[in-house]
Amino acid sequence: RISLSTLINPTTCITHEASTPETLIQLLEKEPCDLVVTDFFMPSENFPDGLALISYIRRNFPHVKLLVMTMMKNPMILRQLLKLGVTCLLDKHSPAEEFKSAVRAAIQGRCHLSPSFGLVLRSPKKGEIINSKLSIKELEVVRLFAQDLSGREIARRLNRSEKTISRQKRSAMNKLDIQSNSQLAAFGQSF
């Protein structure tokens, strides 16, 4: 985090740092900003993964542009991030100059994809088209189910009713043509 903040010109940008999603949300509530640069993996009790955090930011701070940094190359997750309105996706292995370019692009409202993500997104593999049919909420439920959480635990973590979680799980299973909980868990662990 510290090295990234030094790459942003301090005379034109005010930068804040947050080590948890909750701290990030508090900062956004206290002092609105134009751009959030975040890691995809910054889990916490309230935000089990990057999709949950990005979804929350999109709902509550729709004007904020998002630059997400990650090493993950799962096309389904990358597509979900783009669907959520992430302005820029940056590979963590990118050089400093690419980070600066991505920040400029995000602030100007342009998209930026690291070249490695562009390749991944352009080459669908077997099954990805089916997987992309899942809604973000269904995807969250499947991922948590794959972590061996019960419906009650998932409901508590996502602040939804058990009935809603059950419906979203069933819907995901139907869309994926999965017949059993063990198949769903195996699918969820594959991404």
Automatic annotation (TrEMBL):
Pfam family, one: Response_reg
SUPFAM superfamilies registered for this protein in UniProt: C-terminal effector domain of the bipartite response regulators (SSF46894), CheY-like (SSF52172)
Gene Ontology terms, MF aspect: DNA binding
UniProt-listed GO biological process terms: phosphorelay signal transduction system; regulation of DNA-templated transcription
Residues with PTM 4-aspartylphosphate: D39
Keywords tagged on the record: DNA-binding, Phosphoprotein
Record has Nucleotidyltransferase as a keyword: no
Domain HTH luxR-type: start-end pairs: 127-191
Domain (Response regulatory) ranges: 1-107
SMART domains (alphabetical): HTH_LUXR
Keyword Acyltransferase annotated: no
Name of the molecule in the record: Response regulator
Provenance organism: Pseudomonas helleri
